[in-house]
Amino acid sequence: MAKITDNFATACIHIAILYVYVMSVAVTARVLPVHPYLSGKEKPITSIFDTSNYGILQLGNGLANTPQMGWNSWNYFACDINEEVIKETADALISTGLAKLGYNYVNIDDCWSELVRDSEGQLVPDDRIFPSGLKALADYVHSKGLKLGIYSDAGTLTCQYHPGSLGHEYDDAARFASWGIDYLKYDNCFNLSIKPEERFPPMRDALNATGRTIFYSICEWGVNDPALWAGKIGNSWRTTNDIRDNWESITTIADINDKWADYAGPGGWNDPDMLEVGNGGMTYQEYRTHFSIWALMKAPLLIGCDVRNMTAETFELISNEEVIAVNQDQLGVQGRKVYAYGTDGCYQVWAGPLSGSRLTVALWNRCSKSATITVKWAALGLESSTNVSVRDLWKHEFVSLGSASSFSAQVDAHACEMYVFTPLTVTSSSS
């Protein structure tokens, strides 16, 4: 009994010492919970980026420790797909070097199958557009060191009226696995008004039952707030309606996705939909903003343009290694909006903690005129006396080697400047 008491006393002392230390460097008493995958190895620099709603996943497939990266056919091609497009896209990911940057999923969206199941109730690829079959296509993609994704629906039909998987989950999952599929995007059309919490788990179980590791991307459109329940089911979950290739769409979607920031983490991510960069509906600055904010939000980075025919500007944007590194940072905490001011709050500061006690900070100008945007340290959870170096992720250079209290930058209309702040000193609070 004495030994137990001694151990308890020692533990209490250790806890007290740890508490004093944390209080000496943190600006608030609340410490950010560390994601379970990090095993307590590192704590973020600030406590304002709450992740208390993040939960251990039940999917248990070991995927998505960082947000998925790759390409999806829908935003550019819609139903105009075929096996040559998919093969050429895989080739382009390799030849451009995008695959080496992490873009490793080649995902086929809707319209790949025949309009009816076969006599045995199985899904059948449309042999007019996939004459070699999906097993041969998967083999080709795998030979490039990439992974192949496919699409189905948690309803009786897909959104383009092809057979859905509702009631066929185990047959379809086994079919996908037999072809060598690595990723499933699972949509929400023609769902018979059955609650999504009931429709999406059966496919999780069916995928796990195949014995093949398959990424499970839930596309529920945010209708029933999937962040509240999908972390127990999938590797990512759509929080919004479909993205459109315009400024209003990306700003609206970013705000909706931001509401669920504290539910995301390694193994399961909020998904504000695929990238529109390069599809022609926005300006260079707007696309740069789109890519920056998606990276900061730890959104999946799924290219949605024709990578076989990219412009130099498009390639520059989606190949920015420093911005990608923010998205793929092992700490896995979703960045979020921390401050807004000006007309309708159009001058905004978005930020998030990174590994190595760093922060990523985006100054986002949603107004129609260029402006100077300022971030004060209080908005970032830093003490005003903390000195930080500031690296511009688009200029690829340090713009300050010792800022304190605040930082300002000129930001063009509909533009975003993105940085990494690295503290040089942390001033202890006086006790």
Automatic annotation (TrEMBL):
One of its GO terms (molecular function) is alpha-galactosidase activity. SUPFAM superfamilies: (Trans)glycosidases (SSF51445), Glycosyl hydrolase domain (SSF51011). InterPro entries: Aldolase_TIM, GH, Glyco_hydro_27, Glyco_hydro_27/36_CS, Glyco_hydro_b, Melibiase_C. PROSITE patterns: ALPHA_GALACTOSIDASE. Residues 344-420 form the Alpha galactosidase C-terminal domain. Keywords: Disulfide bond, Glycosidase, Hydrolase, Membrane, Signal, Transmembrane, Transmembrane helix. It catalyses: Hydrolysis of terminal, non-reducing alpha-D-galactose residues in alpha-D-galactosides, including galactose oligosaccharides, galactomannans and galactolipids. The keyword Cell inner membrane does not apply. PANTHER family: ALPHA-GALACTOSIDASE MEL1, ALPHA-GALACTOSIDASE/ALPHA-N-ACETYLGALACTOSAMINIDASE. Belongs to the glycosyl hydrolase 27 family. This is Alpha-galactosidase. It comes from Forsythia ovata. The lineage of its organism: Eukaryota, Viridiplantae, Streptophyta, Embryophyta, Tracheophyta.
